[in-house]
């Protein structure tokens, strides 16, 4: 397992074939972003730096296949908040491809589309470690695991022992494409923000101001 705390890791070039290692790198930040917060932004910026990514494309999940009925805000609203959150970073951009694609938002379809659009780039899919540890339940996971690298971000206090155990049980060929990165700012969580809004508690300094304004103006999560 490769653990990073925002440090670039040169080992990757040994793991990958020469052709892949020499490719330029593009990050995809995948998540429900309900709502997006500073933890996500710090994680994406940390991954961009650590893995030498040219850009990070934020792609909010339209209809997450693993949680029907769970989503609170509409896909277009989560997309809008994502755009507001990333506006000030020239290395960040967003795509509505999952929001606009009908049916469940499978990551394999998204990575396939991005690989088609950017054949000269190696894709790094960044998301929460909890999600990545369930990757074998995702659609076409075996294919997906060969198509891109994964950056699994963890919160502080995440149980590394449990993570190690689950990670160790993965096949070797899979492990080499997954890296873990601890992100202290991920102490912030979307669930907590929704709960705080619901209870009338402040959310200032947990997420960018334009997103906070948008949530309050549109009465989200009440
Ligand atoms: P989730 O189960 O809601 O989140 C799991 C944990 O990861 C939460 O603690 C969450 O915190 C955190 N997290 C989520 N996205 C993150 C990100 N980009 N950076 C840092 N932490 C993040 O996971 P999800 O958001 O629904 O799914 C994550 C990604 O995996 C999405 O792109 C989704 O489409 C993909 N996925 C695909 C499949 C499939 O293809 N079948 C199945 C499952 C997931 P917060 O709540 O604070 O964000």
**In the CATH classification, which architecture applies?**
3-Layer(aba) Sandwich
Strand runs, count: 7
CATH homologous superfamily grouping: HUPs
Count up the domains: 1
Unreliable parts: 1-16
What is the radius of gyration computed over CA atoms, rounded to a whole number of angstroms? 17 Å
Class per helix and strand makeup: alpha/beta
How would you portray this structure in words?
The chain has helices spanning 12-15, 18-21, 38-50, 75-86, 97-100, 107-117, 129-132, 141-147, 160-168, 172-175, 190-198, 209-217; strands at 2-4, 24-31, 55-60, 92-94, 121-128, 149-154, 178-182. With 222 residues, the protein is an alpha/beta fold. The protein has a single domain, classed as 3-Layer(aba) Sandwich (Rossmann fold), CATH 3.40.50.620. Strand 3 (55-60), helix 4 and strand 4 (92-94) form a beta-alpha-beta unit. Helix 4 runs antiparallel to helix 12. The protein is globular. The chain binds NADP nicotinamide-adenine-dinucleotide phosphate. The site of NADP nicotinamide-adenine-dinucleotide phosphate has 25 residues, from strand 2, helix 3, strand 5, helix 7 and helix 11.
Strand and helix layout:
Elements (H helix, E strand, L loop, with lengths): L1 E3 L7 H4 L2 H4 L2 E8 L6 H13 L4 E6 L14 H12 L5 E3 L2 H4 L6 H11 L3 E8 H4 L8 H7 L1 E6 L5 H9 L3 H4 L2 E5 L7 H9 L10 H9 L5
Helix pairs in contact: 4-12, 6-8
This protein binds NADP nicotinamide-adenine-dinucleotide phosphate (NAP).
């Amino acid at each position: 397992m490769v653990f990073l705390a925002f440090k670039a890791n040169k080992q990757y070039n040994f793991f990958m074939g020469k052709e892949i290692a020499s490719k330029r790198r593009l990050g995809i930040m995948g998540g429900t972003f309900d709502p997006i917060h500073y933890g996500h932004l710090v994680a994406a910026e940390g991954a961009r730096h650590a893995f030498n990514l040219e850009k990070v494309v934020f792609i909010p999940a339209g209809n997450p296949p693993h949680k029907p009925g769970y989503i609170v805000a509409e896909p277009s609203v989560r997309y809008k908040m994502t755009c507001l959150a990333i506006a000030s970073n020239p290395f960040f951009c967003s795509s509505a491809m999952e929001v606009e694609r009908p049916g469940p938002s499978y990551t394999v379809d998204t990575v396939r589309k991005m690989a088609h659009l950017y054949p000269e780039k190696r894709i790094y899919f960044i998301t929460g470690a909890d999600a990545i540890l369930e990757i074998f339940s995702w659609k076409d996971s075996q294919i997906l695991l060969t198509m891109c690298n994964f950056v699994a971000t963890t919160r502080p206090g995440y149980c590394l022992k449990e993570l190690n155990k689950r990670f160790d049980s993965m096949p070797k060929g899979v492990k080499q494409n997954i890296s873990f990165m601890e992100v202290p700012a991920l102490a912030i969580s979307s669930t907590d923000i929704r709960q705080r809004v619901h209870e009338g508690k402040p959310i200032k300094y947990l997420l960018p101001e334009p997103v906070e304004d948008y949530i309050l103006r549109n009465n989200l999560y009440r």
